[in-house]
User: Fold IPT/TIG domain-containing protein from Kitasatospora aureofaciens.
Amino acid sequence: MAPVITSISPTSGHSGQTMTITGTGLGSLSTTKVNIGTKTVTPTTASNTSVTFAIPSGCSGQANVTATVSGVNSNSSAFFYVAAPTVTSLNPSTGPAAPGAIDVFGTGFATATSVAFDAIGTAVPTVLSDSHLSVTPPAHGAFTACTDAADVIVSSSGGTSSPIGAAGQFIYYALPTVTSVTPNTGPAGTTGVIVTGTCFVDVSSVTFTPVGGGASTPADNVSLIGVGSLTLDVPTLAAGTYDIQVTNPGGTSAAVAADHFTVV
Assistant:
């Protein structure tokens, strides 16, 4: 009697996965071979009702699966090879320790189930098309440096994408801090004020905001000296005390007493 396949699992996937064939008359390890597409493989386990084997590489698209027992072929069941996803770009590719949603572009996203950000964590994506998904990166823990670049890795039924370098990395930024302002008093127009702190990396703005609230005014002639220091000129402001706050992709430094400048 010819062997009969009643089901295979999975019905789609990628090389290296284990497939299980269920049916009748499926033989034994000594009598059974499995054919998938153009490949013939030896089962890992085999019994009269079940056969398992590692899905081979070298095939694509639809590949028919049959079992051959002592030279007699079974009916066939269709398996679909799914290509591994690829990541080509991110938007945005930078953000704070607790980012909002980002867009990931690439290929093979139709069956995407998770997106990993190196050891920081994984997130479940929203698949928008085979080439586009949206995902909220997991929150970053304590920083050991001002930035941390994480490879974005997409997993699907076709496998796992490979790192591609900078184009496929999301960069977490630590929040900047201001620890001192020298001098911390003077008239509007004071030049060469030195602001020190941490993580003055990719600074997008430095502002003066009235203590207690109010409209912010950009500082004049900001010049970065290093990761922890910058100089600026005081803009035209009314008399009063202001928080000098620094903004980078990680956010805006907290308002603290150490960042005060008093316009006299």
Q: What stands out?
A: The chain is about 0% helix and 55% strand. The mean pLDDT is 96. The first strand starts at residue 4 and ends at 9.
